[in-house]
Amino acid sequence: MKENERTTPETGAMFFSELALDYAMNPTHYGDMDRPDGHARITGFCCDTVDIYLRIRKGKIEEAKFITDGCLYSLAACNAASHLATGKTLHQCLSIDQRSIIEHLNGLPDDHAHCALLAATALNKAVNDYVLKNKTPAATTSNPPKNLSKVRERHLRPSRQKMKDQILL
Fold first, then answer.
1. What domain count does the chain have?
2. What's the CATH code of the domain at 31?
3. Has residue 5 been placed in a domain?
């Protein structure tokens, strides 16, 4: 059994953490939104569909809502993503990923970890939707590095180890 999987002692059946169960049974961010500033719809390989809607004011997520036709794990993951995003800058929202959602929920069974990935991907695409509509870089809402050209150059330049590996091939 993996670290993030929990079972009942009596039956060995999988169960939710208390927070995940609360999010699934009482999703406070569930519902659609009229005229959202950012929106994304994603369908996962499991055929669950997630819609995430964002209302953005002064570069921060004022409100995040979602709709899903997925299972209770999807409900919990989408509610967690919406909860984590509310009050954050656009740039901070881009760091909300599968792992941060699973950690926030105190774990998900491995066979439902994709629900957190689906929620994180939809949130990221909703932020990108807003950025593209408004032609506003997400990084301008936080403190980006002062010299972006050096950062880009560092990421574009191959590492010395990669160059050595290529020579050896």
1. 1
2. 3.90.1010.10
3. no
